[in-house]
Write a structure and sequence with these properties.
This protein has 165 residues and is an all-alpha fold. It has helices at 2-6, 12-21, 26-37, 42-74, 76-100, 103-110, 118-127, 132-154, 160-164.
Length: 165
């Protein structure tokens, strides 16, 4: 897989940016790729990944409602998918939102684990009616924190704690 990506003959920044936009990898996959495979500087890998991760949130936050309604009206399959997605996201996020309000969005996006991140955070922002401009800013902040956590893990910061515990 890595060979295929590196043989695309695209600048490393473009590949890193696009990988950060994808829902599965986001910046938790893009930062290690930029640093480890492409040997980018830390600043370049971090900023490229962070900016790439924010792009989908802008489109999702501003267009998800319209887009999901339009597709759901045209296809029972999409109606079923969006019902499942919205129910699952609501169940995962509502406790956090009840305790922390909109700040929960930062925490939810910042946790670099599967099914937390920019994409799911954008769906949660839509479901909980967080104002669009605030949602994008909160998601961007959460993604920034996630980038710091991923970087610390990449550089082995947390391996220090294995020796203490």
């Amino acid at each position: 897989m890595i060979d295929w990506i590196t043989n695309l003959n695209l600048p490393p920044e473009v590949i890193t940016f696009v990988l950060a936009m994808l829902p599965v990898s986001e910046l938790r996959g893009a930062i290690p790729l930029g640093l480890g495979v492409f040997q980018m500087s830390y600043f370049s890998a971090f900023v490229t990944s962070w900016l790439g991760s924010i792009v989908p949130s802008i489109f999702l936050v501003y267009a998800l409602g319209t887009f999901s309604r339009w597709l759901s009206r045209r296809s029972a399959c999409f109606e079923k998918f969006f019902s499942w997605l919205f129910k699952r996201t609501h169940e995962r996020f509502w406790k956090h939102h009840a305790k922390l309000g909109s700040l929960a969005l930062v925490v939810f996006v910042a946790i670099p684990l599967p099914v937390t991140g920019v994409w799911t955070g954008s769906v949660a922002a839509f479901l909980f009616g967080i104002p669009k401009k605030s949602a994008v800013l909160l998601i961007a902040l959460g993604s920034f924190v996630a980038g710091i956590i991923v970087s610390l893990v990449y550089f082995g910061f947390f391996s220090f704690f294995k020796f203490i515990l």
